[in-house]
Amino acid sequence: GLESRKRPKLITDISSVEGNVCLLDELKNIFEIAITSAYPNLVDPPIVLTLSGNNPKFGDYQCNSAMPISHLLKSMNVSTNPREVANNILNKTPTSPLIERIEVAGAGFLNIYLNKKFAEHVLNCILQYGVRPPPVKRERVIVDFSSPNIAKEMHVGHLRSTIIGDSICRILEFLNHDVLRLNHLGDWGTQFGMLIAHLQDQFPDYKTCSPPISDLQAFYKESKKRFDEDEEFKKRAYSCVVQLQSGQPDYIAAWKLICEVSRREFQKIYDRLDIRIIDRGESFYQSRMDAVVKELKDSGFLEEDEGRLIMWGDPVTHEGIPLTVVKSDGGYTYDTSDITAIKQRVDEEKGDRFIYVTDAGQYTHFVTIDACARRAGILKNSQKIEHVGFGVVLGEDKKKFKTRSGDTVKLIELLDEGLKRSLDKLVEKGRDKVLTPEELKKAQEAVAYGCIKYADLSHNRVNDYVFSFDKMLDDKGNTAVYLLYAVTRIRSIARNAQVSETKLLEEAMKSGFKLEHVTEWKLGKVLLRFPEVILKVANDLYLHSLCEYLYEISSTFTEFYDKCYCIQKDKSGNIVDISYERLMLCEVTAKVMEKCLEILGIKTVSKM
Ligand code: ARG
Fold first, then answer.
1. Distance 358 CA to ligand 1 centre (A)
2. Considering all CA atoms of the chain, what is the largest pairwise distance in Å, rounded to the nearest integer?
3. Are 288 and 295 in contact (CB under 8 A)?
């Protein structure tokens, strides 16, 4: 209601503002006040604010509330039109140091022009204090990502989950959330029966001497072959599962050994890609599953279905597919461990947000987990499962990503190829002749891993994407290579003028920013949007908008750099004039770009 609505507190004084203010949120607050005082009788009127797009005629931001409000009023038999509404809103808009002026245009748009002084102050703050996160309420966020399966291969799907999940963690950590990075490894299940049986035959002294399994996938294939062909072996495999599940120490030891081999392989990938993650596989929930199953059973949520115990998200409509909580042989499933895991994450981890990064194919699974957890009272009100789904990786032939011989691509080999190709590219450009061997190696790795990550993150994740080294290593267009070059080039501008960061800070204290040229002003305004881009991405978890923003900074910078000199040299190459204000703008641009790249998990280099 009207009385209970808390009026947002507005910024009234430029000097109280720091570099991390979210302009869009402040504008929303301003127009919320304007609209509620112009139309006090409307309950929850629409507050519509957007960026104006590329035409400077429409201002920097727009408030587009007049049209829907006029519509609303007409439906209440008040005769009015959008322009009149827009003017009424304008009359009630409180003055703000953010805004230079507001115009009513066209059918009732309110075009907002930002105040340059304000922008200059914000950029000055970024120069002095660095790129800081916009303030938000701290939350505990559980991010379940990567999550390959033991003894099976870690494939490109897991690579996508790893890259996207890590970047989600990074953005949330940047916002100072309390993030728990979990690797929900597939480390439990009936496949361990045949693996242990095979281990016993191949390495009878496995208890005392660690088995030298170098290729666990081959080991898996061998045991699977025996399982399918040899009745005797199959029987033994089943009894191994029983022994393992009853906690027989020898079997637990064998299971641990096999997991360890897998883990070492996964860790190689994580080290290369600079991924931090905590192992907490399906096995972790074993001890908790009995209790959860009993609880669900006692509350009457489980139904019998051909010997299985299932649970519907909606017991009346039976929409979607039910969870299989207990199999007909009494065993537990992927569903059982996920319903147990969500309970553990709510009750023990005290999570506020629960994020799961897997291929889009598991969408229904997580919808069902959410519905069942809600039904069972595990998830309450606003708590929900957020499934971050993604499409499949395709080869350049637009078919499922495979090697030439039709095998699945081993991730380590893929990363190695990336390294090789990135070195080729650098050598092709003659960089090996100007960089030291250490610098070359750093550049090689930054480019290789950066391009693989960026290619993934820069596409809308719900779509399938085509994996192409040629495309991702292109130095034109929206690629990591282009952006890494852009940042090093910007960094080198001040370096070439031999202006230190301290000197720039001194200059900033003296004169501050002056965004005089149109291209300077344009670049300044793009940089100001950093907080709103971050908040949007942290909310919807679509990282490609951060990539688009990064690319926009880079191209706006180029426009500026084409038009405005930062350093002037005479014919013989001597520096005759330095524009400190512009070097400051370069510095802030580099800082914001570097922060974006850091959030994407991409390392920058000072030379490449
Ligand atoms: N191991 C699963 C797979 O490879 C992914 C697990 C995702 N996390 C979860 N809590 N279910 O598809």
1. 7
2. 89
3. no
For residue 400, the 8-state DSSP code is B
pLDDT in tens, 201-211: 998 888 887 77
For residue 361, the CA-to-ligand 1 centroid distance in Å is 11
Tell me the CA–centroid distance for residue 78 and ligand 1, in Å: 55
What is the 601 CA–ligand 1 centroid distance (Å)?
Answer: 22
Phi (first) and psi of residue 203, to 5 degrees: -130, 75
Is 356 near ligand 1, meaning CB less than 6 Å away?
yes
- Say whether pLDDT at 560 is over 50: yes
Rg (CA), the chain: 29
Distance of CA 578 to the CA centre of its chain: 39
> What's the 271 CA to ligand 1 centre distance in angstroms?
21
| Top mutation candidate among 262, 362, 364, 392 for ligand 1, by most atoms within 8 Å of CB | 362
The SS3 of residue 140 is strand
How many residues would you count in the chain?
A: 608
- How far apart CA 348 and CA 346 sit, in angstroms, is 6
Asked if 120 and 515 touch (Cβ cutoff 8 Å), the reply is: yes
Ligand 1 close to Cβ of residue 370 (< 6 A): no
Asked if residue 147 has its Cβ within 6 Å of ligand 1, the reply is: yes
The closest of 474, 447, 446, 468 to 456, measured between CA atoms, is 468
Please give the order of strands across the beta sheet that includes 99-105: 49-51, 61-63, 109-114, 99-105
Burial class, 570, CB count within 10 angstroms (exposed 0-12 / middle 13-18 / buried 19+): exposed
| 358 pocket-lining for ligand 1 (C-beta < 6 Å) | yes
User: Sorting pLDDT into bands at 50, 70 and 90, what band is 3?
Assistant: very low
The pairing of strands 99-105 and 109-114 is antiparallel
Which helix (H) or strand (E) is 188 found in, with range? Answer: none
pLDDT digits (tens, 9 = 90+) for 396-431: 999 988 887 888 888 999 999 999 999 999 999 999
Contact 478, 551 (CB under 8 A): yes
Q: Which helix (H) or strand (E) holds 343?
A: helix 334-347
Helical H segments across 203-308, by residue range: 216-229, 231-245, 249-273, 286-298
State in Å: Cα 368 to ligand 1 middle. 15
> Per the confidence metrics, is the pTM higher than 0.80?
yes
- Give phi and psi for 567, each to the nearest 5: -130, 135
